[in-house]
TrEMBL record:
<keyword id="KW-0238">DNA-binding</keyword>
<dbReference type="InterPro" id="IPR036388">
    <property type="entry name" value="WH-like_DNA-bd_sf"/>
</dbReference>
<dbReference type="Pfam" id="PF12840">
    <property type="entry name" value="HTH_20"/>
</dbReference>
<dbReference type="InterPro" id="IPR001845">
    <property type="entry name" value="HTH_ArsR_DNA-bd_dom"/>
</dbReference>
<dbReference type="InterPro" id="IPR011991">
    <property type="entry name" value="ArsR-like_HTH"/>
</dbReference>
<dbReference type="InterPro" id="IPR045981">
    <property type="entry name" value="DUF5937"/>
</dbReference>
<dbReference type="InterPro" id="IPR036390">
    <property type="entry name" value="WH_DNA-bd_sf"/>
</dbReference>
<feature type="domain" description="HTH arsR-type">
    <location>
        <begin position="259"/>
        <end position="337"/>
    </location>
</feature>
<protein>
    <submittedName>
        <fullName>Winged helix-turn-helix transcriptional regulator</fullName>
    </submittedName>
</protein>
<dbReference type="Pfam" id="PF19361">
    <property type="entry name" value="DUF5937"/>
</dbReference>
<keyword id="KW-0805">Transcription regulation</keyword>
<dbReference type="InterPro" id="IPR051011">
    <property type="entry name" value="Metal_resp_trans_reg"/>
</dbReference>
<keyword id="KW-0804">Transcription</keyword>
Length: 342
């Protein structure tokens, strides 16, 4: 178990962020993990398998060496985002700017990590990692190149939906913080996490203590962290904790226009009926437009019409406005999906 000790100052500096780089790195662990862990993300894994041929084997070999199914992940691969919503390019720039000396230390630690280096191919992975250690840049160049190539194929096509889930979780946590303070916000963060006596206790395979030291605490919802909690204490800035967001089970659910029912489509129109079904997760105009394969201006018209009818609600999250179904929208969609009584 890890014990994260927080001060009153740390609690005034609790913040949230979504991180495309964290998702990208954590997804590599999902691909390498056992069947039970992979099952939740099976639809995504199947889609990735169809696209994996676009990646170079040497890039995948490097990434598999860096991110093992279990155990230590080098801190430099998961930098703390500077703001609530960051881009993948922002995260890659942070990795590219990491101190090569610190990166080399982390890679050497990974190469010798008994738990992380379990399984076949250990000698090959260790040789690859040691080769990076001895480079002047500690391998930062090839690592960022491999991550960029992998992200384009594995995460970017699905990022709008993942991002919607993460922001939905952040909105829920912030509401809990406003209603009941840090205690309520932390109360159901993750089954492996408890908070009491200004200490965050996280179930792990090892025992450890760390002090946030007044630098604050960064909470990062991460779809691919499931079922683990990823903790980063050695990097600059805030200590970070990555946990599974609420509603993760609905991430890969697909809504099809025919599921909305022909009667509802006859009233709303096929596009608006399909859009209502799509918004089981709060999304911005651009996210919904990506999902629906329509232009943002066109989507905006449909969103405003559904909102005016009381079927959608909107809320601001940073610079974005997120749209989600109202209770009326849920009831209407549910009723349209039921078969008429015999």
């Amino acid at each position: 178990m890890i014990h994260l000790h927080v001060t009153a100052t740390d609690l005034t500096r609790v913040r949230f962020a979504a991180s495309p780089v964290t998702e990208t790195v954590a997804s590599l662990r999902t691909l390498a993990a056992g069947r039970q862990r992979r099952q939740l993300h099976r639809p995504w894994i199947d889609r990735f398998a169809e696209r994996a041929g676009r990646l170079r084997k040497r890039d995948l070999d490097l990434l598999w060496a860096l991110v093992r199914p279990e155990g230590y992940i080098p801190d430099f691969l998961m930098p703390s985002p500077d703001r609530r919503s960051s881009t993948f390019a922002d995260g890659i720039a942070q990795i590219a700017g990491a101190d090569p000396e610190i990166v080399a230390q982390e890679l050497a630690h990974l190469a010798a990590h008994r738990f992380a280096q379990q399984g076949p191919g250990r000698e090959g992975r260790q040789a690859l990692l040691q080769a990076l250690v001895h480079r002047p840049d500690a391998g930062i160049g090839p690592v960022t190149e491999a991550l960029e190539a992998y992200h384009r194929v594995a995460i970017a096509p699905d990022w709008s939906r993942i991002d919607a889930l993460l922001n939905d979780d952040i909105a829920y946590r912030l509401d809990a913080l406003a209603d009941g303070g840090v205690d309520r916000m932390m109360s159901n963060l993750h089954p492996s996490v408890t908070f009491a006596d200004q200490t965050l206790r996280i179930v792990k395979y090892y025992e450890g203590h760390a002090d946030c030291g007044g630098r604050g605490l960064l909470l990062v919802p991460c779809a691919f962290a499931w079922p683990d909690v990823l903790v980063r204490t050695a990097q600059p800035g805030s200590t970070s904790v990555s946990y599974s967001p609420r509603g993760l089970g609905r991430l890969w659910e697909e809504q099809h226009p025919e599921q909305t029912g022909s009667a509802l489509a006859g009233v709303l129109g096929q596009t608006r009926a399909a859009l209502l079904a799509q918004l089981d997760l709060p999304m911005s105009t651009s996210q919904a437009a990506t999902q629906m394969a329509l232009s943002a201006p066109t989507l905006s018209v449909h969103l405003q019409a559904l909102r005016a009818a009381g079927l959608l609600a909107s809320r601001r999250a940073g610079r974005q406005v997120l749209y989600s179904r109202t209770e009326l929208g849920d009831r209407l969609l549910s009723g349209a999906g039921r078969q008429p009584d015999a």
